[in-house]
Amino acid sequence: MGSKNKLKRFRENETFSNVYQPTRDELVNAAFQLKGNWNSKVFKNNYPLVLELGCGKGEYTIELAKRYPNKNFIGIDIKGARFWRGAKTAIEEGIPNAAFLRTQIELIDHAFGQNEVDEIWITFPDPQIKYKRTKHRMTNATFLERYKSILKPEGVVHLKTDSEFMHGYTLGLLHGAGHEVQYANHNVYKQEGSPAEVTEIQTYYEGQYLEKNKAITYIRFKIK
Ligand SMILES: C[S@@+](CC[C@H](N)C(=O)[O-])C[C@H]1O[C@@H](n2cnc3c(N)ncnc32)[C@H](O)[C@@H]1O
User: Which range marks the domain in which residue 141 is found?
Assistant: First the structure.
């Protein structure tokens, strides 16, 4: 995408009522008013709150929001020009239970309060295979601690990825640390048993992986 187009999207994001872009300072200095208050201040109801981390264009956020009008969805990504797509769709189609937050996932526990979140979807995260990139891997022990701090005790995490490495790494880590793996499938379109929402919604990146005949994997787990 050209830089002119990106700028246009950034400007449009500023005008969207469903886009939230706190500064890093606001988040780390605990000045972010929505922390702990997303349902009361943004959605104005008490429905379960579901996050999509690294949402890209926000396919899961939008499609799940349409399927589950009694849940609230927030797509989170650092790249505003990407989630612009989802935010615009939500506005055009009048989807009231979808919003978008621009932040680094590293700051997630500054954007949400303890026990505020019911479910987390992680969709096609960068696997960060190199050893020195481990700290950026979105299912490492530090990230799991962050997720645990914002999830309700019964809260679950969904990981969908094309990366065999990410799938195996996450399963190994979950088993090793005694977390609860509720379901795992290493080829969701070939091996039966996946929940409908795993096989009926495809993300932008997923479409590209499917064209290359890559297996898509899925894990649902609870952090102990
Ligand atoms: C491979 S893309 C997948 C996007 C989308 N989920 C999909 O499947 O089409 C990974 C996304 O995660 C975002 N991302 C990566 N690391 C991040 C971080 N630390 N904080 C926020 N977003 C991040 C990137 O901007 C990118 O949009």
Answer: 3-222
Residue among 52, 82, 56 nearest 209 (CA):
56
97 lines ligand 1 (CB under 6 A): no
Report the relative pairing of strands 217-222 and 180-185 from DSSP bridges: antiparallel
Domain count, the chain: 1
CA–CA separation, 27 and 104 (whole Å): 10
Cα 93 to averaged position of ligand 1 atoms, centre (Å): 24
pTM recorded for the entire structure: 0.97
pLDDT in tens, 19-40: 999 999 999 998 899 999 999 9
126 a catalytic residue: yes
Q: What is the pLDDT of residue 128?
A: 94
Between CA 47 and CA 4 the distance in angstroms is: 38
User: How many Cβ atoms from other residues are within 10 Å of residue 45's Cβ?
Assistant: 12
Closest CA to 121 of 59, 168, 70, 165: 59
Residue of 54, 147, 55 whose CA lies nearest to 109: 147
Best probe residue, ligand 1, of 55, 60, 77, 109 (max atoms within 8 Å of C-beta): 77
Using CB atoms within 10 A of its CB, is residue 142 exposed (0-12), middle (13-18) or buried (19+)? exposed
Q: The CATH number of the domain where 20 resides is what? A: 3.40.50.150
